UniProtKB/TrEMBL annotation:
Signal peptide start and end residues: none
Chain segments carrying region Disordered: 111-134
GO molecular-function term, one example from the UniProt record: 3',5'-cyclic-AMP phosphodiesterase activity
Ranges of biased composition (kind: Polar residues): 119-128
Name of the protein in its database record: 3',5'-cyclic-nucleotide phosphodiesterase
Single GO biological process annotation from the record: negative regulation of glucose mediated signaling pathway
Amino acid sequence: MKDKGDGNGNGNGNGNDEIAAAAVSNTGVQGQKPALQVICLGSSGGPCEENVTGFLVRSVARGWERGSMLAVDAGSHLAAIVRILERDFPLVSGGAARAGFDGSVVVNGNGNGNGTAGHPTSSLSPSPSGDDALVQLPEPTVLESGPFAGLKLPHASARANALHVLRSYISTYLITHPHLDHISGFVINTAAFHATSKPKTLAALPSA
């Protein structure tokens, strides 16, 4: 199994040379190929809300098939995906652009993505699905690095592509227990579920 990454997609090494070598070659300690990829979106129970419990799990054998990812808890969710793509998505990873969920990109003079003068801005709320048909989408970009390496992304901004990942690739949410640090991201992000092709599945572990 691949090593779990943190909110920035980095693996948690333990200093063991054998495990480190296996991680570099994408094989297990015994030489087996990884069966699952685990992306850590958050790993704490608070008090800071930006790094609370949330994971994405997918079968490596299925590739980047739509609906192939399982979210295990969702305290941190869409915002953490945005953060990863802002680092790894080539059009904005240099920090020169900041974009809304509708795909419009805002660029400022100093390259830090905070200025908006003279440029279109967008709401943080997802755009209606009907608007997508009116927007000329660029050619898909295939990520070359990071936890989403190999995934084709259709939009010109990391934020719009994060919403695309949520809507198209995450099919099920498994909540281990209903504490706020495990469900807050899911609750807030339900506003983005309206444009999905089919309902999300919400599952839970039986209580003791």
